[in-house]
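USER:
Working in pairs, take the chain set out below, taking as long as you need, and write a paragraph about the fold.
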Amino acid sequence: MEELAREAGITVRTLRFYRERGLLPPPRREGRIAWYDDHHLARLRTIAALLERGHTLNGIADLAAVFESGRDAGEALGLGLGEPTEETPVRLTPEQLADRFAGEVTPENLATALELGYLATDGDEIVHISRRLLEVSAALVREGVPLSAVLEAGRRVRVHADALAELFVAVVGEHGPGTAAERLRPLAKSVVDAELSMALDRALRRDPPEAPGAPGAPAPAGPAGPAEPV
C-alpha cells in the first residue's frame, strides 16, 4: 500500500479512504501480504484526473460502478466473428472521454452509451465502436446539444437504420442474390444519403430554424463557467 501511494503521489491515508469508498478494487492477497498492480495505479491516476476536471468522489464512484458493469470490447465489437465493418474503434481513457464531453459524462449518460453499444470496456480503457459517431457526438455537444439528447436521437435513428438495412438486404436477396456485401454497402448508403438530404430540405422548408437574435429565438448563451461537478 505504501509503494502504491508513493507511485500515485498520494498519502496512505488517502489511499485507504479511496478503498473504503469503493473507488479502488481490493488487492490480491497472499497470506498477510496485499499486492497492488498497474490496474490499481491506473485507477488512482484516473481518480486524480477526474477530480481535476471537477468531478466529485461520489460521481467518480458512480462512474466506476457503471464502467465496471459494461460489456467487454471483444463482445461489443464481435471480434473473432468475422463480421464486416467500416467503422474504426477508438480507445479512450476515462479522462479522455471526460475531455471530449466536458460536463456531460454522467453515470446516466455512460450507462446509456454502454447499453446502446457505443462504448465497451477493455481493462482500464474505454472503446468507442465508431470514430465517426464519436466525432459527430462530440461536435453536437459543442453546438450546445445535451449528450442525453444526442444519445436518445441515436437510439431512435438506430430503429430506422435497422429497418433500412433489412429492407436493402431483402431487396437484394430477392432480386439480386449474387450482389456481394462490398457492392451492397455503397449502393444502399448512397440511396439513404440522397433521401436524407432531400428529407432535410423538406423539413427545413417547413420549419426553418430561428436565426440568433430573431424574435422568439433563444438568447445566446453567456460566457461558459466551470463545468458542474458530476
Observations:
- The first strand starts at residue 28 and ends at 30.
